[in-house]
């Protein structure tokens, strides 16, 4: 609760923020009175309260045609809400859309989401760091994703097979009987009607009689 407890020499109200402090993911609910907004900006100067401004800048970026205008709006968005914060030169903290903290180690090519080191390609959190630092993404990708390695995959010739009538099957292979897999029935009554496709739900049509119209 944000309440005034005293008034200083400059005529400013001193709030009880020292007792409450600043906490992560803190939210202030008010009736948006001008005095409350003014007091909040004084007591919590670093509090994020510019989401309306952030929305305006975002849609302005979507309508920008020139790269100069886009870069200028991108700088404004970083000033309003910076979600990528460097811890060191190669360690970054990235906040995702669900406000979860992700630690990215660019030098080790690792991320706390494990996707960077498993796929060996920058995850969305690493891409946010690359965009923030203006670094080149291909340098942090595995060599297996390059065009050179793709060509090496097919540079070895594949020998063609002879006609099927000339194949020599071993006796132990011919004696094997391949049975269908054992399928366990699902609980409940089985469905009789087929599953409709997406367009059948979107474009439903009622079938009527051509004579009576019913």
UniProtKB/TrEMBL annotation:
Q: Does the keyword Oxidoreductase apply?
A: no
Name of this protein: Uncharacterized protein LOC104227732
- Annotated SMART domains: ZnF_PMZ
Q: Name one GO molecular function term.
A: zinc ion binding
Q: Show where the SWIM-type domain sits.
A: 91-134
**Pfam families xrefs:** SWIM
Q: Which InterPro entries match?
A: Znf_PMZ (IPR006564), Znf_SWIM (IPR007527)
Q: Which domain of life is it from?
A: Eukaryota
Q: Which UniProt keywords apply?
A: Metal-binding, Zinc, Zinc-finger
């Amino acid at each position: 609760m944000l309440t005034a407890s005293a008034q200083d020499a400059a005529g400013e109200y001193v709030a009880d923020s020292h007792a409450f402090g600043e906490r992560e993911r803190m939210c202030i609910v008010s009736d948006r009175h001008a005095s409350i907004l003014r007091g909040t900006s004084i007591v919590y100067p670093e509090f994020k309260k510019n989401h309306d401004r952030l929305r305006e800048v975002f849609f302005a970026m979507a309508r920008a045609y020139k790269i100069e205008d886009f870069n200028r709006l991108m700088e404004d968005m970083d000033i309003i809400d910076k979600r990528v914060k460097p811890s060191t030169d190669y360690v970054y903290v990235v906040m995702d859309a669900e406000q979860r903290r992700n630690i990215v180690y660019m030098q080790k090519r690792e991320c706390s989401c494990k996707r960077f080191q498993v796929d060996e390609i920058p995850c969305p959190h690493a891409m946010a760091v690359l965009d923030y630092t203006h670094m080149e993404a291909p340098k942090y990708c595995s060599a297996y994703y390059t065009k050179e390695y793709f060509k090496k995959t097919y540079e070895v010739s594949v020998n063609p097979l002879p006609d099927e009538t000339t194949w020599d099957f071993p006796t132990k292979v011919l004696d094997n009987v391949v049975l269908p897999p054992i399928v366990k029935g699902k609980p409940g009554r089985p469905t009789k009607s087929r599953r409709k496709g997406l367009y059948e739900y979107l474009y439903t049509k009622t079938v009527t009689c051509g004579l009576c119209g019913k």
